Predict the 3D structure of the following.
Amino acid sequence: MLVKFSGLLLLSALSGFVTAEETANIEIIAFNCFTCHGEEGRSQGATPSLQGLPGKYVQQAMNDYKADLRPGTIMPRIAKAYNATEIQALADYFAQLKQPQ
């Protein structure tokens, strides 16, 4: 599924739109984040919320965790499981979620 996801992301970037299948795949990957960061990235506790953060910030944080440049308890291990395409997709996903007003 991840190979298919990467291909869909590339096609989406080239075509300028996101398919329903790609959105579903991104949501499946993002679901892993919800355990700590809350449903749709809206934390109810001490863990930071991801919802609505700028994509570049999320992408940089994930890359820093992955490279052991940013300290964390679990995030350095989690970030290493994602490739660059998946990190970009997660960053874009959380950036497009609107924060409640």
Remarks:
- Helices lie at 2-15, 20-37, 55-66, 75-79, 84-96.
